[in-house]
């Protein structure tokens, strides 16, 4: 569905291949086009007062003319997208965008290919056939995992072109990844753990590797320290250079779920399954205290620290987000606007915002000064969003169970 102020009309598309146009003021049905596509129509966008475009599971983009006086819809052009048989479900088009200032049209298929058209030209950013497990940003570079691979891309480029990180010998899925200012660290299901170094121009490759005692479930990476929370409830400190084990600590009295490093207080903040944050000294793992940040029984499912180290955000398995001062440990603000489990969190220094993903399928931006909020529902369409990361240039990257990496910018300016 899309509204046009120029046409004063709303256009709606349906799974049974119809296009319907309504008067925006009276809700009167103005026109219906039956069998507009060969299969269900997923999305529609107005391109002008008398024209719009549609995309469908039949692998076609179609352009249409709208005659308001005659109340008539007429097909203008039909464009087949990625090569292949139309019955191939992974090539079915299910999302559409139109940029009025550039005239470019972009569509997304179920495989995760992003097809950008400018007149007759076509540019394809190929997607993945498996879920994206996790992602992180280092400066303007974004790193994400898919199956047993890690991909890197420069977000400052006009076109996001992921490149495979070389030298990774993993055979099982990689689902944990984090970065400091000089390296990226990744952990897989088979307990392998790797350090990745390089740059966007020369490429990235593995520069160190180790075997953990158990699978990594959370990583706290800073320029001075590297801690890994393992599935056996142990926190291990690794050497930043060669990943050799320096110390191991068994968490007792609580079930750890997430960790971050508080460089202001030189502490490890450990979220647990009972909604608490436990404060451990980074020097000797001694526990200095705990805080019941979330409701008892609502596990900490997301934990992130701001770039300047002054704030930490925590999200639980219910729907609540809390921000805390890293020096005083006092709560700054509570954000209850999501309606389901918090999946991922990320701070953005440029817009002074906290971004959050939830199983309610929305991406939310919360301004940390004014506390104003911007919620983008269905940010991955019908798919559930999973993880997010924010680059130094303010671009936001999100993943979901649609196997897609989506890029967002100027969220506060979105209608």
Summing up helix and strand content along with how strands pair, one would put the structural category as: mainly beta
Largest sheet: 4 strands, antiparallel
Find the CATH superfamily of the largest domain.
Answer: YVTN repeat-like/Quinoprotein amine dehydrogenase
Rg value = 24 Å
The helix content is under 10%
Number of strands: 39
Task: Just name the CATH architecture of the largest domain.
Answer: 7 Propeller
The neighbouring-strand order within the major sheet is: 1-2-3-4
Domain module tally:
2
Main CATH class of the largest domain: Mainly Beta
- How many helical stretches? 0
Question: What is the general shape?
Answer: elongated
Estimate the strand proportion. over 45%
CATH topology tier name of the largest domain? Methylamine Dehydrogenase, Chain H
Mean pLDDT: 89
Alpha carbon gap, first and last residue: 14 Å
Give start-end ranges of low-pLDDT stretches. 83-87
